[in-house]
TrEMBL record:
HAMAP family xref list: Ribosomal_uL1_B (MF_01318_B)
Keywords on record: Repressor, Ribonucleoprotein, Ribosomal protein, RNA-binding, rRNA-binding, Translation regulation, tRNA-binding
Similarity comment text for this entry: Belongs to the universal ribosomal protein uL1 family.
Taxonomic source organism: Spiroplasma sabaudiense Ar-1343
Protein name per Swiss-Prot or TrEMBL: Large ribosomal subunit protein uL1
């Protein structure tokens, strides 16, 4: 059985695991129960009444968080046609087949997001099995396969996140950092919640959102009240 330190046990005692808190109170508790010395990440997890085995029940998308993520994202742009645009927009890495081969041969992953122009997708498909499990494969649905490289880069730098259901019907997303003001966490939560609600499949019967939990890195889970 896992043993926790005095500091962790002290903050855990602040959270009633049987209570679903209004988001304002949950955000306050998340900040209070952050136990790390570094600025920990605040995350949210939605448990949805969906069956991801069916294509029409797979929830996936991307949004720009209104308060940002608190994280600096390194962006790789793969393109043959928008090199100058990518340079002017502030991409961290720019290349083509050369960088795709670098990922494949050298296991190079010094970036957080890949934006690709459409002509690169045939080559990128060759390393889909490498990028897919890491959540790095560009996709038109999330705006990372596009000819508008500048907008895509701007969105990422402003705090764009991607979300999708896992095999159990859960969606995990970043809310921000423990250093954020409560109002910022609440604002981001509202944006993600709206996106999840808009993605509700027609096939879903009954309650769509079954459970919501927020937590900080190494902090306790805090249930959030589901408001209609």
């Amino acid at each position: 059985m896992a043993k926790f330190g005095k500091k962790y046990n002290a903050v855990v005692s602040k959270v009633d695991k049987n209570t679903a808190y209004p988001i304002a109170e949950a955000a306050k508790l998340a900040k209070e129960t952050s136990t790390t010395k570094f600025d920990s990440t605040v995350e949210v997890a939605f448990n949805l009444n969906v069956d991801p085995r069916h294509a029409d029940q797979q929830i996936r998308g991307a949004i720009v968080l209104p308060a940002g993520t608190g994280k600096t994202q390194k962006v790789l742009v793969l393109t043959n046609t928008k090199v100058k645009e990518a340079e002017e927009a502030g991409a961290d890495f720019i290349g083509g087949v050369d960088l795709i081969q670098k990922i494949q041969k050298e296991n190079w992953f010094d970036f957080d997001v890949i934006i690709a122009t459409p002509e690169m997708m045939a080559e990128l498909g060759k390393i889909g099995k490498i990028l897919g499990p890491k959540g790095l494969m560009p996709n038109p649905k999330t705006g990372t396969v596009t000819v508008d490289v500048k907008k895509a880069l701007d969105d990422v730098k402003k705090g764009k996140i991607e979300y999708r259901t896992d095999k159990e019907g859960n969606v995990h997303a970043i809310l921000g950092k423990s250093s954020f003001k409560e109002e910022q966490l609440i604002l981001n939560f509202g944006a993600i919640l709206d996106a999840i609600k808009k993605g509700k499949p027609n096939a879903v019967k009954g309650a769509y959102i079954k459970n919501i939990v927020i937590s900080t890195t190494m902090g306790p889970g805090i249930k959030v009240a589901i408001e209609n």
